[in-house]
């Protein structure tokens, strides 16, 4: 069965509120899939994460982006909010993607050190 959407441990926390907590989801390609639940259950938050309108909590966003083995992955501040060990792991994974899978990675950061430790090429953008 081919999947159009798949999540593994998808989570989104707003302070102490766990809007979505470790959601594993599989949507078969070519199907009509419905999410059912009361107000506040996490349906809209799940959709907003899948659309990229809000970020999941921790490293799950990158794992989710890599499911279909894309040729291009665009990451907006991918180490933001990670602990020091998580930052190191994320940088290593990002640097491995081009060699292991031929994936091109574009990432943004406001930290020069982050770009220096992760990117092969960069552009400085100021005032548009």
Notes on the protein architecture:
The chain is α+β, with helices and mostly antiparallel strands and 128 residues long. The chain has two domains: 1-57, no CATH class; 58-128, Rossmann fold. The chain has helices at 43-50, 60-66, 84-101, 112-118; strands at residues 3-14, 17-28, 72-76, 104-108. The strands form two sheets. Strands 1-2 form a two-stranded antiparallel ribbon. It has a two-stranded parallel ribbon with strand order 3-4. It is globular and about 45 Å long. The N and C termini lie far apart (45 Å).
Strand order of the largest sheet: 1-2
The end-to-end span amounts to 45 Å
In the CATH hierarchy, the architecture of the largest domain is 3-Layer(aba) Sandwich
**CATH homolog superfamily of the largest domain:** P-loop containing nucleotide triphosphate hydrolases
The percentage of residues in β strands lies in 25-35%
Helix content: 25-40%
SSE string, helix = H, strand = E?
A: EEHHEHEH
CATH class wording of the largest domain: Alpha Beta
- Give the biggest beta sheet: 2 strands, antiparallel
* Secondary structure tally, helices: 4
Mean pLDDT over the full residue set: 82
CATH topology grouping of the largest domain? Rossmann fold
**Contiguous uncertain segments of 5+ residues:** none
Kindly give the count of domains: 2
Radius of gyration: 16 Å
């Amino acid at each position: 069965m081919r999947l159009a959407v798949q999540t593994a441990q998808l989570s989104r926390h707003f302070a102490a509120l766990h809007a979505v907590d470790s959601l594993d989801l599989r949507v078969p390609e070519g199907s009509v899939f419905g999410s059912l639940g009361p107000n506040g259950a996490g349906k809209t938050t799940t959709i907003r994460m899948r659309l990229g309108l809000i970020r999941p909590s921790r490293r799950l966003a990158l794992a989710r982006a890599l499911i279909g083995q894309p040729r291009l992955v665009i990451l907006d501040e991918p180490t933001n909010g990670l602990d020091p060990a998580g930052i190191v792991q994320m940088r290593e994974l990002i640097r491995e993607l081009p060699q292991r899978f031929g994936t091109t990675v574009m990432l943004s950061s406001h930290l020069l050190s982050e770009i220096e430790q992760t990117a092969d090429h960069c552009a400085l953008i100021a005032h548009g």
